[in-house]
Amino acid sequence: MHSLFRASPTTTAMNWPSVIARGFVISAILTLLYCRRIVWTSFASVEGGPIAKLISLVAYCWQDLVVLALLVGWALIFEAKRSHWLWSIITVLICLFVMTATVFNVYAMHIVGSPLDASWLGEVNLRDAGTAWPMITAYISPGMKQLSVISFVVMPFVGLAIAKFAVTRLTGALLLLVLGSMIAFGLQFVIGAAAFPVEKRLAFKNPVFGELRDLVWPPRTLALLNGEASAAVATGELSYAMQPVRPSTFNCCAGQNIVLITIDSVPQKTLEKALSPATRSNFPNLSELFDHGIAFRNFYANFPMSAQAMGTMVTSIHPSFSPVLTTMEEVYDKDIAILPSVLSSHGYKSAHFMGGQLKYAGAADLLKNRGLDTIEDSDSLKCGDDDAAAMAIYAHLGDDCTAAAVSRWIDDRGKEKFFLWVWFTNPHSPYFVRARARIGGTLGSFEQHMAALAETDAAIGVLRNKLKSKGLLDQTVFVIVGDHGEAFGEHGQLNHGTSVFEEQVHVPLLFSGGNVVASHREMDAIGSMVDLAPSILDVAGISAPAGWQGRSMFAKDRANEAFFASRRSGRMVGLRVGDIKYVLSSLEEGVVAYDLSKDPGEQAPLRLDADTEKDISGKISAYVAYRKAMKWPPRKSASGP
C-alpha cells in the first residue's frame, strides 16, 4: 500500500505514467466514497458504540469496499509496470468507468429512484437521445451539476496532487480538510432506504459490483428470467399463445367511429383519485365518459415504458425481452397485421396524432404504410411559438395543441367511418402544465401530475365538442387507456420504467360512447395491453387476425391472468392470477407474491410453499422462452400486410 501512495523521488525525473495511474486510482476511490450518499445516514442511525457502527458501515457498504479493493489491487499488482504508458492508460480508463458509473448512479437514483445496471445501456440510442434529454435535464438540480464538476474535475486534480507530492503534516491536513468538505457536501444526496427488502437492496447496490457479480456469479433466478429453465410448465392452453383467427363476439358498435385516446403515464390509482368525489369536478370529460362506459379495473401495461406499450397496443404481441430492441424495432419490417391495417382493410379512414416524437424507438417505422392515412407528431404539428419553445423543455407539445390539430382533421372528414388514435402526453414527466409555471429544477410532484391530467381532460373535451358539432358524437366509441403508470415514491422510486409494482403497471382501460353501454359498468376481468387491439376489433364487430397473442377483454373464455416485465432495478417478470400477483426478480432468491385484495400497496410479501414457487417460476420462465422464440416472416411489400 505504501508503494501506491508514495511520492516520486524528487531527485529523479518524474515518472508521469505512474503518477497519472496512481492519481486516477485515488480519484476513483474518492469519487466512490463521495457519491455514496447512503453511508452516513446508515452509519449514524445504528445504535451502540463505535464497533457496532463500524460493523454496520461495512455491512451496508461491502459492495463499495469490494470495488475499492479491486482498484487498489489492480494498482498494487501492476505497480512494477508503472513506467509503461499502456498500463497507465488502462488504469485511467478503468477508473473513469468506475467514476462515471458511480456519478450516473446518483443521477439515476434521483431521477427514477433506481440504480444503474447493464439494462440501461440497452436503452442508449443516439437517435433517441434528443427525445429523452429534456426529461433528464428537467430533474438535474444545481447540486447534481456541482457533483459532476467535483467528481470529474476536482477529484482528479486532488488525486494527482496526492500522487505527485509528499504528504507532509501541513499538506496532509489541508488535503483532509478539502476531502472532508467534499464528503460533507456529498451528504445532500442522501436517499433514505425504504422499509422493503427489494428497495433496501436497490439503495445499497453498487452499479459496478452488480454487473461484475451478474457476470461472474449470476443469481439463480437469472436462468429462469432468461427463459432457460422452463421445464415446469403446466399443461393446457397458454394465455400468451399466438391465437388463431378470433371472430367478434361482443360486436356492439359495428360501423361506428372509434377514438382511441392514450394518456401517457397515468396509473389506475391516479384516475381513481381524479374521479373521486373531491376532485372529479376538475375532470368533467373523463367523469362523463366513465359514468357512461365499461371500465376494466384490472388492466396492465406489459412493460412500464411508452415505446414497448405503443408496439404492444397495435401488434397484440408481448414486448420484446431484448435489452436493445423494443417491440416496434423488432417487428417493423415483419409480415404482421397491426390494428390500423386491419381497420383500414374494413373501410376505416385512420389517423394518429401524438404530441411527442414518433421517431423515438422506431415508432414511425412501424406505423408507416400500415393503414394510417394521416400520421402527425411534434415534427409536423403546427403550433405557436410557445409550443416550439416547450419542446426543448418537455420533448412534447401541449395536449391543447394536439387537440387543435385533431379538430382540424375531423373538420376535413366526410361521412366515412374513421379510427382516430390520439396520444396525449401532458402527464408524462416533466409534467406539462400550461396554466402555471413548471417547477424548475425539482422533481415533479403528484399535484403537478394531476394538474397536467386536468389539462388533458380539457383537450379531450375539445375533441368531444368537435364531434358533437359535426353530429358524430353519438356514433363514436371512445377507448381510454394509460400506456403505463407513474411512481411517486410508493416503493422508493419515481417516474416509470423501473419496476412491476402496481403504480407502474396497473393502468386504466375504459370503453365509452356509441352503443357500448348506457350506464356505468365495472369489469373484474384481468388483462393487459396485448389485449387492447383484439378488444377494439371485438367492439367494431371485426375478427382478430391470426398470430396475435391477446384476447378480447369481452371474451367470456379468456384466461384471468396477465404477464408484465421490467428490465431496470434488476430484471423483473410478473404474473397476476386472480387477486395474487407473483414477481420473479434477479434481486430476490425466489418468487415474491402479494395478495392485492388485502395488500394493494404491495407492502406485505406472502410466503409461498416450495411447490407453488416452482410452478409459478416455471410458468414465468416458459412465458419468457415462448416470447423469445417467436419469429415472423419479412414484410411482403412496402404497403404492409
Structure description:
The chain has 641 residues and is an alpha/beta fold. It has helices at 2-5, 16-35, 38-45, 50-77, 85-112, 118-122, 129-137, 142-164, 169-186, 197-203, 207-216, 221-225, 268-274, 284-291, 306-315, 327-331, 339-345, 363-367, 385-394, 399-411, 446-469, 502-505, 532-540, 610-629, and strands at residues 257-263, 293-300, 349-354, 374-376, 418-424, 476-482, 487-488, 494-495, 506-513, 521-528, 561-566, 572-577, 580-585, 591-595. The strands form 3 sheets. An 8-stranded mixed beta sheet has the order 4-3-5-1-6-9-2-10, sandwiched between helices. A 4-stranded antiparallel beta sheet has the order 11-12-13-14. Helix 2 (16-35) packs across helix 9 (169-186) and helix 3 runs antiparallel to helix 4. The longest helix is centred in the N-terminal third of the chain and has 28 residues, at 50-77. Residues 1-12, 190-197 and 438-443 have low confidence and may be disordered.
Output the radius of gyration: 27 Å
Q: Determine the mean pLDDT.
A: 81
Strand order across the largest sheet:
4-3-5-1-6-9-2-10
Low-confidence stretches: 1-12, 190-197, 438-443
Instruction: Find the structural class using helix and strand composition.
Output: alpha/beta
Number of helices: 24
Helix proportion of residues, in percent?
A: 40-55%
Distance between the termini: 67 Å
- Work out the strand percent: 5-15%
E-strand count: 14
Task: Give the overall shape.
Answer: globular
Q: Main β-sheet, in a few words? A: 8 strands, mixed
